[in-house]
Amino acid sequence: MSAHASPDAPLLRESAAWRLLGLLFERPREGWREEVDALEGIAADPAISAAVAAAREEACEEAFLAILAPAVVSPREVTWQRGADSGQLLAEIRATYDAFAFRPVTEEAPDHVSVEAGFVGWLLLKEAYARVAELPDAAALTAEARARFQKAHVARLAAALAENLDRWGVSYLTLAAAALAARAGEPEAIPSLDTPPPSPCADGCSFAGEAEEEEEATL
Prior knowledge:
single chain, TorD-like
């Protein structure tokens, strides 16, 4: 296969699907509907198309801002990752974006659902390019990073949105959240706040021996 061959069509469709899901969680603005319509034709996904059809009837800035808000249904991962350090989480996300040159033009935080979904779409696009350019190692690395990011970040946020949005009566957001959760898969398990972590000395510790070694090391 040459570098001028057609890109991997399934990867491109999946990239468009993720970008479209992210777009459905962006604030409706000028040009938003046109971009949604264009991506729907590429993604060709029935579940997402149902969300798009509902968005044509329902989407408006007022409803979006009233529902996707920290005090109602937060669209940010830091809200739903129980027990996680928010600063560390955001630093990890930013570092992952930087590693793959992902620099979205957005008004949202790095852990916003629209940005995270857009990043998965970006990785799918990069993987498609790597396959066309006959760079199997780069393609495999990108695919592995995508799977890891989906499980560690997107999946829990998507599951929380799918669980909490259906009570607010805006069907396009409910449908989009369900489609996103189905694509993201099962979230990575995180420790329960109700269960204390195991003692680091459950199998015994020799603090005295460690102290003696440190003392010898300083002599």
